[in-house]
Amino acid sequence: MKQKYWVPAIERASLILDLVSEHPQELRLIDLSKQLEVNKSSMYSLLNTLEHLNLLSKDKEDTYMLGPGIAKWSSSYFRQFDIVEAFYREAPDSFNKVQEAMQLGILEGGDVLYLGKMQSESRVQLITNPGMKFPAYASSLGKAQLLNYSKEELLMLYPRYNLEPKTPYTLSTVDMLYENLQTAQDQRYITEAEESALDFYCVGAPVMNHNRKIIAGISFTMLKSSWATKREEATTEIVQLARRLSQQAGYADKI
């Protein structure tokens, strides 16, 4: 959407950087000119300026890649990124739609360390609060952060193999946990059915950074009686919120 004081040259430079970041060392001046529908003369000026600012580099084949100047901005951005602040800024929209408890947490060893929480005025209140820990294997928020773990990595995390049950439905071994995680590999979320507390269902999703590393997890938690009617919306909202937080952490979503 165009704005009153829009500067087309800056927009074009941004489009160039986006395209080059997606196709490093693949595009020449003529390719960029065609794909972005910018005449070659203007494209030459833009590329030349971006090169001199170290925002682009050109190799011996005359194709472009991002330059070292990008790094100083990205490192500054990631230093200032605060996952808790981002959660409380972005979560209200999803929370208002679903009207169920939301939580944010990070992985600390084999546990989840809760960092943020939003809760409705329901008579049922969660017992976990920011600053508390809970076994990652027994929560969707925790399992979401274990999605990329191999069985060997899970065994390093839980060397006793058997997992302490929180309810009769808690996954009780590393093998069961690994199999459960595998079922969610092609999804952007993972669910939990009374594994952490009886009569509670959850759906969680991972937050990823610019290195495609999972840095946090978020979740919706609700009573079993609400799950049947709210599951689909809660899943959609938690996935979308995770995507927004990941993008703010620098994750480039190619899907």
From TrEMBL:
Higher taxonomy: Bacteria, Bacillati, Bacillota, Bacilli, Bacillales
SUPFAM superfamilies referenced in this protein's UniProt entry, alphabetically: GAF domain-like, Winged helix' DNA-binding domain
One GO-annotated biological process of the protein: negative regulation of DNA-templated transcription
Sequence ranges assigned to domain IclR-ED in this UniProt record: 69-251
PANTHER family given in the database record: HELIX-TURN-HELIX TRANSCRIPTIONAL REGULATOR, ICLR FAMILY, HTH-TYPE TRANSCRIPTIONAL REPRESSOR ALLR
Keywords: DNA-binding, Transcription, Transcription regulation
KW rRNA processing (keyword) present: no
GTP-binding as UniProt keyword: no
Pfam families named in the record: HTH_IclR, IclR_C
GO MF terms held by the record: DNA binding; DNA-binding transcription factor activity
HTH iclR-type domain ranges (all copies): 7-68
Protein name per Swiss-Prot or TrEMBL: IclR family KDG regulon transcriptional repressor
